[in-house]
């Protein structure tokens, strides 16, 4: 049979109609009407001990089911980070702790029949605090006499350089070659420090979950999460119960971007259900999602870069200081990407990468699209752009002298061999799209406004090598279609559709013949979760392997029913047939897929199925080049982004529409980080920007028409030659916009965001 191929085709998302018609598919849509309403009393202090807490009046409010304090919380320490086991993140949390470590930390949990009753009860809790000195400057946190985690039961399961007695969540160093010797031999050595503040998550659906006990007394959790299997472990650890007593179900998710790789909300309704036996639900407000959730890590990155006068990068020395906040969560893992995804892209002769991740008395940081690479690439890319300016070299030309090439070993990237790379092609494509040669470096418009252009290059990864696991079960139904069960989490990215496209091509059928089941930890095969840009590459290969195995089983069963040897048969998606030497149907015998499935299930045994897991020893990097054109008003400092052009190498593009949407969304988030999103705290540790009235994200009118194209290499270790696309697209706007502003103003900005106020102050100093 000749069927239209599905890979590299813009197939409509499987859940598209349900989403656009408002079908009840999200967590709150599915919650029982009799759920207890769960809210928490939050600390007004950055660092304090609860001296006394009186909950009698609160508990007496009609409709209140329970009021829980630190005395009611299990003594188990755990982490909310959704990562492999053993987790690199320290076990430094309790559900409720007597020591409060940031403004917004949990003091008490209140559950009741109505929101009104709960709100009233929260106001009636009387708490006396012993206010302690906080650690609010992350540059002074290491070895500070004030300890964020002085407790003796704090523990780190992995050797990540953690030491709670030094306020260290993680620390380390790695190198290749003699950095100091190479730097001494360089014609130009620049040293610059770049500061990226925390950035808040602004997904449409805030953190939420509901819980209930089933007929067997097991804790059932329905949550908006990227990590169902990790949530099961997190809750079991926190509550001190076996994982077998916990079931987690993931419905549709209204955005994640890494925030929901942390179990932010699930534990609070869970403990209420365990204490009361009743269903419970917690929905974070937007305010809570901003003050007590999972923002991007604040980082300060110092780069020493040595170059020849011709522009060859010879050595990179990088130090990253990362602020994990009050709890470790993803601190030990994000910091690594700041170096591993930034240093290798220009193939230095020698490199050194050192880092410290410190505890402070701010809300805990977590996973956010780009996951540390965003911060590191901003630093390295801007340092290279600054070096190009000092050497008088076009920033595109300096990159041509330094690009990675296929076949190279990357010492700063786990010593992986690069098998697929179109980064140079991406830059040339973006150059043509931007018309760079005519616009570089700037154009004075003659009315107090100047236009400038800038460039940024990015690489990321495709899953975590030897860690991320994808498992797929595909089963032939008695109607001749396929049921595919996956543990990967579709969070709006369309992975259900993309994996179905792969399966359809493997099985020579239509996408509609692949029925995908949502994640349920009781029945879905294990998957480490949707993060680290892993789903297409890791779970996709599991799909390919599972389909191959199932095809072999279908051919064997069909051949048996036809009474011919399996080696003489083949399968075209519709039937098993007797084949000639060229695998073509010789016309002598065939049996339909529907007949095979019916006879197998109704006559001779179980349905034909295959279950396969996949974990990759490598993480092939996707690449991207982004170019920005801005117009700066020299009188007001206003920055207008006029154009953004990008070219992406993500290997074979499985679904061009979904890949383009991923790219455009990541670029917009990068624009927000570069120009708008600004987090500031009071001297008491209270977040000032705690709503969309204060926290500015880019509106549609501030975003130009983005142009994204693909220039695909072929990754031999990926399914159909695919790599990842979800995170690499976040990283280029930061250096590209900063360089564009430099070309327009003569000012380098090494702290984000670049605001009109900063531009005006900088221009004032130049004058």
- In CATH, the homologous superfamily of the largest domain goes by the name Aldehyde oxidase/xanthine dehydrogenase, a/b hammerhead
Q: Please, how many domains?
A: 4
The amount of helix comes to 25-40%
The count of helical stretches stands at 19
Low-confidence stretches: none
Q: Strands of the largest sheet, in order across it? A: 3-5-1-12-9-10-11
In what range is the share of β-strand residues? 15-25%
Second CATH tier, the architecture of the largest domain: Alpha-Beta Complex
Count of extended strands: 30
Distance between the termini: 73 Å
What is the average per-residue confidence, as pLDDT, rounded to a whole number? Answer: 96
Q: What is the level 1 CATH name of the largest domain?
A: Alpha Beta
- Structural class computed from helices and strand pairing: alpha+beta
Rg, rounded, reads 27 Å
CATH topology of the largest domain: Aldehyde Oxidoreductase, domain 3
Q: Main sheet, how many strands, which sense, barrel?
A: 7 strands, mixed
Shape: globular
Written description of the protein model:
With 767 residues, the protein is α+β, with helices and mostly antiparallel strands. It folds into four domains: 158 residues, Aldehyde oxidase/xanthine dehydrogenase, molybdopterin binding domain (Aldehyde Oxidoreductase, domain 4, 2-Layer Sandwich), CATH 3.30.365; 189 residues, Alpha-Beta Complex (Aldehyde Oxidoreductase, domain 3), CATH 3.90.1170.50; 187 residues, Aldehyde Oxidoreductase, domain 4 (2-Layer Sandwich); 188 residues, Aldehyde oxidase/xanthine dehydrogenase, molybdopterin binding domain (Aldehyde Oxidoreductase, domain 4, 2-Layer Sandwich), CATH 3.30.365. 27% of the residues lie in helices and 25% in strands. It contains 19 helices and 30 strands. The strands form seven sheets. Strands 3-5-1-12-9-10-11 form a seven-stranded mixed beta sheet, sandwiched between helices. A six-stranded mixed beta sheet has the order 7-15-14-13-8-30. α17 links the parallel β28 and β29. α9 runs parallel beside α10, α10 packs parallel to α18 and α17 crosses α18.
